[in-house]
């Protein structure tokens, strides 16, 4: 559990904004939605870096659709399993808990598969 | 397991550099060293963002020493347990697997304690 001393309402608000904490495996959705659940855990207004938690539950990128991102993406599977496919000669990656991959900007990729029966939790850093 | 097709030596080198992958819990040190083990998993030459794996094994920041960093640090405990202390009115944070905290730049903090008998694996994003 994470605790933080609060001295008063105004102080509390400032600290909550500047100093967020939590658990990447907490508060998973009770039932899977139509789309993946994406939550921003941290971001930097100046350089645009973003850290996200993504929860998949059998979700995959539609066939023939690709992510083509302006930023590098370092992504790790915290829980569950997933397969990432790439639009080049590279083989698919099967990621299990703790596995990460650093996907360069504009490297076209898609999520080909995630475990159908449980939540797959990703941690993604767009930098 | 992570696999990637290689078409030749020159191709392989380029891809290895641009496209690193692994597991944050793999290749832990056989015996703990004098200092924490710090490994850069990804970095961006342009904006200086860095993603590190840190392995502690009973290590702590020396008493009365503080980290005072120019960058924000989003840090998560992947395995193990740790306590982070702050140089202000904020209470210590006891972090267990999956717990994260976003430490603003120049927020003075130290690692007060990590589990003495096992590896505590951190994932840190300096952004």
Structural write-up:
The structure is a homodimer of 127-residue chains. By secondary structure, chain A is mostly beta strands. Chain A is 8% helix and 39% strand. Chain A has 1 helix and 9 strands, in the order αβββββββββ. Chain A has one helix at 9-18, and strands at 21-23, 37-43, 50-56, 73-79, 82-86, 93-95, 99-103, 109-114, 120-126. In chain A, the strands form 2 sheets. Chain A has a 5-stranded antiparallel sheet, with no helix packed on it. A 3-stranded antiparallel sheet of chain A has the order 6-5-8, with no helix packed on it. Chain A starts with 8 loop residues before the first helix and ends with a strand. The model of chain A is unreliable at 1-17 (pLDDT under 50). Chain A binds chain B through residues 1-5, 7, 15, 18-26, 41-42, 44, 47, 49, 51, 72, 74, 76, 78, 89-91, 93-95, 98-104, 107, 123, 125, 127, and chain B through 1-5, 7, 15, 18-26, 41-42, 44, 47, 49, 51, 72, 74, 76, 78, 89-91, 93-95, 97-104, 107, 123, 125, 127.
Relative helix content of chain A: under 10%
Order the strands across the largest sheet of chain A as they lie in space. Answer: 2-3-9-4-7
The total of beta strands of chain A comes to: 9
How confident is the prediction overall: mean pLDDT of chain A?
Answer: 88
Structural shape of chain A: globular
Q: Termini separation of chain A (Å)?
A: 29 Å
How large is the share of residues in beta strands of chain A? 35-45%
Which sheet architecture does the biggest sheet of chain A show? 5 strands, antiparallel
Q: What integer value in Å does the Rg of chain A equal?
A: 17 Å
Residue windows where pLDDT falls under 50 for at least 5 positions of chain A: 1-17
Largest interface: A-B, 43 and 44 residues
Oligomer: homodimer
**Derived structural class of chain A:** mainly beta
Order of helices and strands of chain A: HEEEEEEEEE
